Amino acid sequence: MRIVLVGPPGAGKGTQAAYLAKNLSIPHISTGDLFRANISQGTDLGKEAKSYMDAGNLVPDSVTIAMAEDRLNQGDAEHGFLLDGFPRNLGQAEALDTYLKGRAVKLDAVLDLEVPEDEVVKRIAGRRICRNDSSHVFHVDYHQPKTEGVCDVCGGDLYQREDDREETVRKRLEVYHTETEPIIDHYKAQDLVVTIPALGKVDEVTQRAMAALGKGE
Question: Which residues are catalytic?
Fold first, then answer.
């Protein structure tokens, strides 16, 4: 299957992408991983992206599109993939359309993870990260540490990242509404969009998505 996963920040795209890709036996291709891989491997695209990032500028669509196409050209993506974070705007969606058309293949579905805006803010603004190890993540409502402000795993201080502050989250949502939401209409016109309510336990959301894809139990 060839799938695009979309949804606002805090919708759980990364988590769902990993589960769905595993269940469907297709590679999970995320924009973040693409950037990290190209930069760490010192590819020409990685160097170009890093030059923009080091200057505090956004990486142009042309670089992101080239990275995505390069990854889609790899053998493991020949018979399916799950795209997470790409396309993120209309220009990238149109570029993906052109790429797929050139290879005489089509997307099977665009999964739109739907979460109320207030829940997005609550999910992200409530996160607390361990200063010693960023993989130790807690939440003021959903996953409280035994001792407030202290990591259960290593005893490190817990803090709120700047990106997770409410005013920052709301700005990120504005960017999502302006840049990314238009691709949903773009794909609705192709009758590809399947809306998945993303509230509830992780496995429940995964089951809804699999059922929507006709892959449920």
Answer: 13, 88, 127, 161, 172
Concatenated DSSP letters of the chain? -EEEEE--TTS-HHHHHHHHHHHHT--EEEHHHHHHHHHHTT-HHHHHHHHHHHTT-PPPHHHHHHHHHHHHTSGGGTT-EEEES---SHHHHHHHHHHHHHTT----EEEEEE--HHHHHHHHHTEEEESS-TT-EEETTTB--SBTTB-TTT-PBEE--GGGSHHHHHHHHHHIIIIIHHHHHHHHTTT-EEEEE--S-HHHHHHHHHHHTT---
pLDDT tens string 88-98? 999 999 999 99
**Is residue 124 left, alpha or beta, with left meaning phi > 0 and alpha meaning psi from -120 to 50?**
alpha
pTM, rounded to two decimals: 0.89
Distance CA 21, CA 28 (A): 6
Distance CA 129, CA 6 (A): 25
Q: What is the mean pLDDT of residues 53-65?
A: 93
